[in-house]
Design goal:
Elements lengths: L16 E5 L6 E2 L2 E2 L3 H15 L3 E5 L15 H11 L4 E2 L6 H8 L6 E3 L14 H8 L4 E4 L21 E3 L1 H15 L5 E5 L4 H14 L2 E4 L4 H7 L11 H15 L4 E3 L4 E4 L8 E4 L9 E5 L1 H12 L3 E5 L12 H12 L3 E5 L1 H9 L8 E2 L4 H8 L4 H4 L4 H5 L2
Parallel strand pairs: 1-4, 1-7, 4-6, 5-6, 7-8, 9-10, 9-15, 10-11, 15-16, 16-17
Antiparallel strand pairs: 2-3, 12-13, 12-14
């Protein structure tokens, strides 16, 4: 698929300072990075800029701090990036300010500076033009490689892109290409697997794929909104009340669509959301009182696996159950193994789905694992992403 935005590959960066928005919103455990996948995903862009003699100023958010929070400092992220690069990465004392400007100006070709957590600045999430101007003062050009934050109109993802020559990073460009190819030009048949807890999170994607997919396979707790709409007992299962009416709308639209919408036909139940709870398999979907559905059952898993095996393209977003609890991991594991073994094109989006693939050791068998959760869903819906729209158009650059 073509990509309409200017790429960092074509950017004149030699001898220039480049502000690079990365998505280093990674999990921390005891002050260390617990999963560095997002850091590693940004390395191709960083290495390309260094090889071309650019000085690099990195900026990212981490978590959701309310003001400055030492527990969410970028220090462990800078340490891990340094380990991956084999050298120390300096951490600025803040996001903007005179001291940060001095450090940025002192950078030589190939050197890096990481700014502090962008959300330490209250203007970040407000897309504050004043903060964007101070960020723009740190560099001569801007590269957005943070696909996972591209759906947010924030100062570091959108506003600053209008103040500097703005280019797409290697990761962001690949993400857009891979996901739009699934949405707009998939190999047929297209099977879409959607899990997770909330219909409201996936409603736009379901509406879109009812028009273009051959099958939509539903798992996770959001299936209980569909069952509730049909008057099927859900016991103590997690039911998103706001999703019940939306589920009904999707069911009605499915009757007028050539796309087959499939729901679980059996379930794995537990007394509570805990690894040590009593587990029971239910041949059906009527959940008794005192029980909650925590995974799809074996018949559903086998049926979904067969559908994936015959697909030309598979898009999967959201686990089939509470896979983080071993007694209820089998449905998600079976689906993950089926996607990993599928002969067609396989694309997985969403943090939980990616985490499941990593947990089961299957990530390297998927054609593309997206780093964006909300961003991948919004792109699949056909919505414009502010972080992408702010970049220079390729056509405009080619005419310069």
């Amino acid at each position: 698929m073509s990509f309409a935005k200017a790429s960092v590959r074509d950017a004149p960066v030699e001898g220039r300072r480049v502000l690079v928005r990365v998505d280093f919103n990674v999990p921390l455990t005891e002050g260390r990075v617990a999963d560095d996948a997002r850091i590693r995903a940004a390395l191709p862009t960083i290495e390309l800029l260094r090889s071309r003699g650019a000085a690099i100023v990195l900026v990212s958010h981490l978590g959701r701090p309310r003001g400055v929070d030492p527990a969410l400092s970028m220090k462990p992220v800078a340490r891990r990036l340094g380990e991956l690069l084999g050298e120390r990465v300096a951490l600025a004392p803040g996001v903007v300010g005179p001291a940060v400007e001095r450090l940025a100006r002192s950078l030589g070709p190939g050197e890096l500076l990481m700014l502090e957590n962008s959300r330490f600045e209250p203007g970040e999430t407000r897309n504050d033009p004043a903060l964007a101007r101070r960020l723009a003062a740190l560099a001569d050009a801007y590269v957005d490689d943070a696909f996972g934050a591209a759906h947010r109109a924030h100062a570091t993802t959108e506003a600053v892109g209008h103040l500097l020559p703005a280019y797409a990073g290697i990761l962001l460009e690949r993400e857009v290409r891979e996901l739009t190819a699934v949405r707009d030009d998939p190999a047929r048949p297209l099977s879409v697997v959607l899990g997770g807890a909330k219909v409201t999170d996936k409603i736009g994607v379901m509406e879109r794929f009812l028009e273009v997919a051959e099958q939509i396979l539903i798992g996770g707790a959001m299936c209980f909104s569909f069952f509730s709409h049909r008057g099927i007992a859900t016991g103590d299962s997690l039911v998103e009340e706001e999703g019940i009416e939306l589920a009904g709308m999707i069911l009605e639209r499915a009757t007028r669509s050539s796309c087959e919408l499939r729901l679980p036909v059996d379930l794995a139940l537990g007394r509570k959301l805990s690894a040590d709870t009593e587990r029971r398999e239910l041949d059906g979907v009527e959940v008794p009182e005192g029980w909650m559905g925590l995974d799809i059952g074996p018949r559903t898993a086998a049926g979904y696996a067969n559908a994936v095996a015959t697909a030309g393209t598979v898009f999967w977003n959201g686990p089939m159950g509470a896979f983080e609890l071993e007694p209820f991991a089998s449905g998600t594991r079976a689906l993950a193994e089926a996607v990993a073994s599928a002969p067609g094109k396989t694309v997985v989006g969403g943090g939980d789905s990616a985490a499941a693939l990593e947990a089961f050791g299957l990530a390297d068998r998927i054609d593309w694992v997206s780093t964006g959760g909300g961003a991948s869903l919004e792109l699949m819906e056909g919505r414009e992403l502010p972080g992408v729209e702010a970049l220079l158009d390729k056509q405009a650059v080619s005419k310069q």
